[in-house]
């Protein structure tokens, strides 16, 4: 029985590998540098992750057009972890030990990332993780190209507080690790800013929640107490559309109770009529509407690659763009794709981002990014209404949580530690490594 | 017009500005031109205030356009226009008169940027100016704005507007706005006590917060009166809250009913564990998407009819797929529930992936027709139109299905076959076809449920997965093989869920409901309405 299953798995993965090969036809058969793509192509997360798989294939094709890397062509190896968290670990192992890839770009949810971490550590390979996440982690083999909470959540709350004069807060999220941790950080931050406990309402809903009547009514009631109220939403994926539809139908206008979301980008808005939602906000490090020549080129090339003029770009795509270019540059600098050499070479590498500046890889394996706050427009795009004056360095261990405020990460020799406690002077304060 | 002028004057005197009521046009244009040069939101806001301070009703047009994001300036000469887009090119309209004054490509103009606080500033600025608008809706929102930001100096303007107002609900809103302004003013206690009564009659949460604020700053008689009013409002509100919860429960129940009723036929009546049921719902939703797409592209005028057109098509598509599944897979597996479960689960994965391949993995936009958008108020309860129509629709589908089962020959055949297959066959009923058609009917009903659910949920390949567990829960809880059981089961679960949610939260509420169902099934394994007699054992 066991033999049979593994045969099936092997056949299936062979099929997927073949699919990956087919998807990038212009490559040589031998002597290629292999790049693993670990994004769900089926199951609940396929909605977000499929686009990132296409983005990676697109970036690899563009790189091959430029002549590849170290004189070799790049070859994409695509696997489908099917939104199944344990399968992520299995597929990661397969990519590294069977397919011998030199770097992996992938994962979306925090739980999938946590599931693959031990694999990357054990087999000493590289993972580039492109999604905004809750922080509280820094691992030697992982590069976090999405936003840490201080690159998204905190500036968004600051904007609402200073520009819109918000005094009462609803923290609404889906019930899992990212919203829970982010809300914990935000609650601590708001209280530090003098917001009273009764002016904060925290609400969690299950994955894929579709009946928002009660919660939207609660928000409306909470917001009618005479103080300016805003909703900070860490609601994930599928649940957003019914949430925004209910907001629109109950007539909650952005001028009265603005909603700022951390998981809603151009892709998510594609399934919505945004006319009634104009003015609600999102905080990201990139919007498709950003007016720079790099961005214009990227969008044009992406649209022609995907063959659909209506396809949008979004923040995690930009994160892959930055991460991929950083990896390319680090490999060129190191002269090899060997993991240890690349890990040493990549810190300090800086590449252009799409919002008109340069992003650099920091010693904590997080990157520098600008923070943009955008308002939803009637055409489904965002208009930037505020941005940080400079770049913000990703802070892996939040300064607002008592557990982590003394921790730092620095992967350069001689410290080489992901959770160095500055108070005790020892490596290994908290966390998983 | 005279009244307008008088009103403008009153407003201006009240606000203490010396400019004439009708600022001359040149002056207005000079101020409007400043929109082109303001560098940030604060500067734009200053221009808005300056325009509002002229007190000229003509500024309503440019300010409204600004709030809607339609105000732009030409890059070449910095002239400000209202733009309206038509097929790529932009039409430039004069900001004051609204007359056509040329065209431009979208690259030649720059939008005056707005954000929420600016929109709010505009709304407050034009609130008083639009109190006399010919459009009742505009007057209503003006009164509402003035209620939310009470200004004692607007009392006279409100008095003038109330005197001529003909529409009853606009008038009462204006009176409430006046009462709020009176409470914020330094008028005598008797006036304020009357105002408290008006606010109390309004009776919603905004009124409550206003009363709480009055209670906080007033003293003596007024303080006591405000406290009493607030207590009264709170009492009525809690009654309305209960009513609102019942309504939410019915609404959730009707969604559950729609999702489960097809399953009540395939699982409840035929005994087939159909894991692909959710995907039938999804196919219905995608049919709606395709129909709307065709309508948007070719017959935009028919958009409000899109759901009516999608209904029969969704029934046919989902029913057809159901027929194919029954003929191709399930008929070989009757009486083998475990194999049916696995096979239909496989079918569900195939359908999901097929849809993902054809339509892409991202959400598809299904629009609400105008008659399904927005909400209306009954007392202190707001009811959204889409939920109301879904409740009506679910009940209609249920009634039709009940009729088909009870009073048509086909329904008789279905019941006969499911109760005693061999006897029915000997009476000349073609049982295989009845099976196929029953399954197709169940699937088709799931398809039309998809049309309704596309209005409240997202249309993605995963749509069905969210409903399959709930559907089984409803059918098992209500009693297998009984449509009324499904109905009562769906409504009970809906209402219980919604009463638990405010106290326990959505996550815990769902868990409590599941535990309750498990306990209930322990006590009554056959659900609420158990079938009795020999057919149960067969």
Overall tally of domains of chain B: 2
Task: Spell out the CATH superfamily of the largest domain in chain A.
Answer: Response regulator
CATH fold annotation of the largest domain in chain B: ABC transporter involved in vitamin B12 uptake, BtuC
Strand order of the largest sheet of chain A: 7-6-8-9-10-14-15
Strand content of chain B: 5-15%
CATH architecture label name of the largest domain in chain B: Orthogonal Bundle
Report the order of strands and helices of chain B. Answer: HHHHEEEEEHHHHHHHHHHEEHHHHHH
- Radius of gyration of chain A (CA) equals 22 Å
Helix content of chain B: 55-70%
Total number of β-strand segments of chain A? 19
Distance between the termini of chain A: 36 Å
Mean pLDDT of chain A: 88
Number of domains of chain A: 2
How large, in whole angstroms, is the Cα Rg of chain B? 31 Å
- Count of discrete alpha- or pi-helical segments spanning 4 or more residues of chain B: 20
The largest chain-to-chain contact, stated as pair and per-chain residue counts, equals: A-B, 58 and 60 residues
Give structural notes.
The complex is a heterodimer of chains A (433) and B (538). Chain A is built from twelve helices and 19 strands. Chain A is α/β, with parallel strands linked by helices and 433 residues long. Chain A has two domains: 2-147 and 294-368, Rossmann fold (3-Layer(aba) Sandwich); 150-290 and 372-393, Response regulator (Rossmann fold). In chain A, the strands form five sheets. Chain A has a seven-stranded mixed beta sheet with strand order 7-6-8-9-10-14-15, with helices on both faces. Chain A has a five-stranded parallel beta sheet with strand order 2-1-3-4-5, sandwiched between helices. In chain A, strands 17-18-19 form a three-stranded antiparallel beta sheet, with no helix packed on it. Chain A starts with a helix and ends in a 6-residue tail after the last strand. By secondary structure, chain B is mainly α. Chain B contains 20 helices and seven strands. Chain B has helices at residues 2-15, 25-33, 41-53, 60-67, 116-127, 136-148, 155-164, 168-184, 189-202, 205-217, 221-269, 277-298, 306-328, 337-359, 385-407, 409-419, 421-426, 431-453, 465-478, 483-523; strands at 71-74, 80-86, 89-93, 100-104, 109-111, 375-378, 381-384. Chain B has a five-stranded antiparallel beta sheet with strand order 4-3-2-1-5. In chain B, strands 6-7 form a two-stranded antiparallel ribbon. In chain B, strand 3 and strand 4 form a beta hairpin. The longest helix of chain B is centred in the middle third of the chain and has 49 residues, at 221-269.
